[in-house]
Each structure stands twice: as structure tokens, then as C-alpha cells.
Design goal:
Elements lengths: L1 E4 L5 H4 L7 E3 L7 E4 L15 E4 L9 H6 L3 E3 L6 H16 L2 H10 L6 H8 L12 E5 L3 H12 L3 E5 L5 H6 L5 E3 L2 H7 L2 E4 L13 H6 L4 E5 L8 H10 L2 E6 L12 E3 L8 H21 L20 E8 L4 H11 L4 E9 L2 E8 L5 H8 L4 E6 L2
Parallel strand pairs: 1-2, 1-3, 3-4, 4-5, 6-7, 6-9, 7-8, 9-10, 10-11, 11-12
Antiparallel strand pairs: 13-15, 13-16, 14-15
Helix pairs in contact: 3-6
């Protein structure tokens, strides 16, 4: 297998690749890609490209639909950078509550004063803040990051409210019993002194923090957004800051508007910028990629469904990327029987417009079966895994 790395990938991740794999700079000839932030939307996808593994959670830099149509499975690494983002969120809480940044900048501005120590004692009252202990924190989105933030903040003495209508069983198990489960996000807007957002960007979440939400909030609320800038209506935010409704807005996604807005602490996208996060993401991305290339298994895909049958112990295994349409499975199984193959194991999963099928058969897979399946309308890729 030829693997292209469009960004520098941590060595701990590259070490997960078998020795038989070749790292190449030639994107046109590669079988799979490991990527971080490189923009792929304008790149021509090689016809043989089997997979793209993103060493991180966000996939805005990858053309998901174009990849699906090419039969290219796209992976990400949810949770691998969760601790790094959690720690930044805790820092953001403190930075929003205590004017540490303003104080540090002021000290730098008077550093040439020979009586700087005396000036500091006299001027520090301008940077008085508030403590977070005993305050109410609303956590919107209880994935790996949100759960980590919520649990940590209960240990800091905060009264934590959690909202996520789609919380997973794993997250629910990991959530502290001290978190107050909220079923209506408006209750968080009304009750909380601090609000932190940890949801993916979708049509349903775009500008979810809007003028109506701000109107319900307490005066002087502090808002943290370490997820995506467009989760917040920035025009409404600007008015809320000017009116004193919002005391501070801390974002990890500054843009031309927020970077120049009074009351905003703009962090330069440092949520996952730790050595540990980069290592964790690279390692998980490589493991997902190898499992897919070697066994056909899909874990944490964003354009095809997750589907896993472990290691193949049958005579052969076939992986099929196809449209999610009626009678597809019967056509695939008929192709096997018409070619005198007995199916020993089969798994079919769908996700939106796309589906994925793994089939283990009793004998070695020959080219005639691959050709027969490839000719079925709606099939975009058939691969002999074993």
C-alpha cells in the first residue's frame, strides 16, 4: 500500500503502519491518505484512493461527498484530542473570569518603569475578576470533550448543567452523577453564569447561539466556544457584548469579526495543539486506516457507515461501497451464488445515501466475482480484502 501524508504526521502514528507500506509524496499514485489540516476540496482524487484518515475530529477540509462517490472512505478520530480541548476549556473559564490577559499585557506596557512593583500594587484593582467556584456552568454537547469538561468542573466546585438530546450510552456512563441533566437547552440559557458549547457544526446547530438565546441569558454571562465559530451568530454576539448581556466571549476560532471585537478573548485554535493530542490523533487515524486496508473494517467513518467483522478467517473477503438503495444486497449475494461461492459471513450497514457491505466467502475471491459485482448499478467500489 502507498500512503500519502498531506501534513506532517506524528511518528507514533506512522509507526502503526506495516513495514510493507510505503510513504509517498505522490498523491496521484497513493492508495490512502493521512491528513491533518491540508485542504483537499480542490484536489483531484485518484481513482484507486481507498481511504482518507483525518488525524483530528473536524473534516471541513475534506470533500466528503466527492470521496463517497469515489468509493473512498473518510475516517476521523473523535475523542483522541478530547483531553487537550478539555484542559483549554478550563483555562478559558479562568481567563474569562479573571482578567489575566489584560493584566499581563498591562504589566508588559509598564515594564520599563523603575517602580514597576509599586505601580503593580496600585494598579491591580483594575483587573479584579470573579471566581468560578459555586457558579453555574451549562455544557451544551456531551461527547468526549463535553463530558470531560463537565466532570472536571464539578471537581472545581461548579454547579454543572449538561444538555445533549443525542447523548451516547458511553458518554452517559462516563458522566458524573453530580451533573444536572437538562432536557431543554433554554434552561441553560436562563440559569447559567457560564455556557460552553461542544457540538458539531450542522445545519441544525449553525448559529444556535443567536439573538433569541442571548435574550434569555443572565446579564454578564461568559460564553466559551471551542467547537466552531459559526455555532454563534456573531452579529447578535456583538450586540450582546455592547449591551453587557455577555461579559466575555472566549473562542478558539477567531475570524476577522471576532478578532476585532471588544470583550472577546480569541485563542488561535489551540484546542488540540498539544504533543499528546497530536500523537493520539495520529495513532488512532493510522490504526483505523490499517484495519480498513487489511480487514475491510470501518471505524469512525464520516461518509460511510461503521462496519466491522474482525479478521477474516474464511477463504476470502469482499468489501463493497455502494449507494443505499433497494435490492442491492440481494444482487450482491446473487453474484456470489452465480459464481459458486458460499457466503459464510455477511454484514451490511447504511448511512444516509451510502452503504457498505462485507462478505466472507468459502474460497479465494477471483476477478470474475469482482467484475460481476462492479457491474451492478449503484456500486462504486468492490475490493478484494483477502
Amino acid at each position: 500500500m502507498k500512503i500519502s501524508t498531506l501534513n506532517p504526521i506524528a511518528q507514533v502514528g506512522l509507526n502503526q503502519l506495516p513495514e510493507t507500506y510505503e510513504i509517498t509524496d505522490d498523491f496521484a499514485s497513493c492508495d490512502a491518505v493521512l491528513v491533518r489540516s491540508a485542504k483537499m476540496h480542490d484536489m483531484e482524487l485518484p481513482g484507486q484512493l481507498l481511504a482518507v484518515a483525518r488525524a483530528g475530529a473536524g473534516v471541513n477540509n475534506i470533500p466528503l461527498d466527492k470521496c463517497a462517490e469515489n468509493g473512498t472512505v473518510v475516517f476521523n478520530t473523535p475523542g483522541a484530542n478530547a483531553n487537550g480541548v478539555k484542559e483549554l476549556a478550563i483555562a478559558a473559564l479562568i481567563l474569562g473570569s479573571r482578567d489575566i490577559v489584560g493584566g499581563v499585557n498591562w504589566v508588559k506596557s509598564i515594564s520599563g518603569d523603575p517602580d514597576v512593583a509599586k505601580a503593580v500594587e496600585k494598579g491591580k484593582k483594575a483587573f479584579v475578576g470573579t471566581e468560578i467556584k459555586g457558579k453555574k456552568l451549562g455544557v451544551i454537547g456531551l461527547g468526549a470533550i463535553g463530558v470531560g469538561v463537565a466532570n472536571a468542573c464539578t471537581q472545581l466546585g461548579m454547579d454543572v448543567y449538561g444538555y445533549d438530546p443525542f447523548i451516547s450510552v458511553k458518554s452517559a456512563w462516563n458522566l458524573s452523577k453530580d451533573i444536572k441533566h437538562i432536557t431543554d437547552v433554554n434552561d441553560i440559557y436562563k440559569e447559567c453564569d457560564y455556557i460552553t458549547v461542544h457540538v458539531p457544526l450542522m445545519d441544525s446547530t449553525r448559529k444556535m447561539i443567536n439573538a433569541e438565546a442571548f435574550e434569555q441569558m443572565k446579564d454578564g454571562v461568559i460564553i466559551l466556544n471551542l467547537a466552531r465559530d459559526t455555532l454563534v451568530d456573531e452579529d447578535a454576539l456583538e450586540q450582546a457584548l455592547k449591551a453587557g448581556k455577555v461579559r466575555k466571549y472566549v473562542t478558539d476560532f477567531p475570524n476577522q469579526k471576532t478578532a476585532n471585537m471588544d470583550g472577546v478573548l480569541a485563542i488561535p485554535h489551540l484546542g488540540a495543539s498539544t504533543r499528546e493530542s497530536e500523537d493520539n490523533c495520529a495513532e488512532m487515524a493510522a490504526e483505523e486506516l490499517v484495519d480498513f486496508l487489511e480487514n475491510g473494517n470501518i471505524t469512525h467513518s464520516v461518509n460511510y457507515p461503521d462496519c466491522s467483522m474482525g479478521v477474516c478467517e474464511s477463504g476470502g473477503r469482499i468489501a463493497v461501497c455502494h449507494g443505499n438503495r433497494p435490492h442491492m444486497l440481494s444482487q450482491l449475494t446473487n453474484a456470489c451464488s452465480d459464481s459458486d461461492y458460499n457466503i459464510e459471513h455477511l454484514m451490511n450497514k447504511s448511512k444516509g445515501n451510502w452503504a457498505y457491505t462485507l462478505i466472507d466467502v468459502d474460497n479465494e475471491v477471483k476477478s470474475d466475482l469482482i467484475e460481476k459485482m462492479s457491474s451492478i448499478e449503484g456500486v462504486v467500489r468492490v475490493r478484494k480484502v483477502k
